[in-house]
Amino acid sequence: MANKVSTAISVDQFNEWYLKIGQIYHKINHITVSHDLSYDQYLIMRELKRIPSIEVTKLSRMFDITSPAISRKVNVLYKKKLITKKRSDIEDQRKVFICLTPLGEQLIEELEDDFEALFKEMIGEINQELMPLFKSTDCFYNYLSKKAQQQA
């Protein structure tokens, strides 16, 4: 019986942690909203800065979301003139490469400055406490990824 209580507490702790992660996401999202972007859109643009021209399907794998979901996010960025789309293969119109426009490059620089300031202020105070959390999150992610592959 003691094991059940222990497991229930672990599940409760996990649920609390998960809810807090969602709340952190929403609090961080306010920085990008002031630039008329979601945090997810910012992350896509950040990857485009790192990898200047990338195929949309590779981006969907990087973010572990479906092709239709990444396409919707990319289309919003395209309509805002923050990215361009290029089809490199005339025979296969599904191959779409995207890259930042000059406006997108400028916006990503501004957002990175905003995030840099936030993290210097916040993480400077609690940096040592966060490092084990980041490592634990990586371990947890790797475990779940392995489980998902086994079930596929």
From TrEMBL:
Coiled-coil portions: none
Biological process, per Gene Ontology: response to stress
Single Gene Ontology MF annotation: DNA binding
Keyword Transcription: yes
UniProt keyword list: DNA-binding, Transcription, Transcription regulation
Domain called HTH marR-type: residue spans: 1-149
SMART domains hit by this protein: HTH_MARR
Listed InterPro entries: HTH_MarR-typ, MarR/SlyA-like, Transc_reg_Sar_Rot_HTH, WH-like_DNA-bd_sf, WH_DNA-bd_sf
Domain of life: Bacteria
Family matches, as PANTHER family: TRANSCRIPTIONAL REGULATOR, MARR FAMILY, TRANSCRIPTIONAL REGULATORY PROTEIN
Protein name: Transcriptional regulator, MarR family
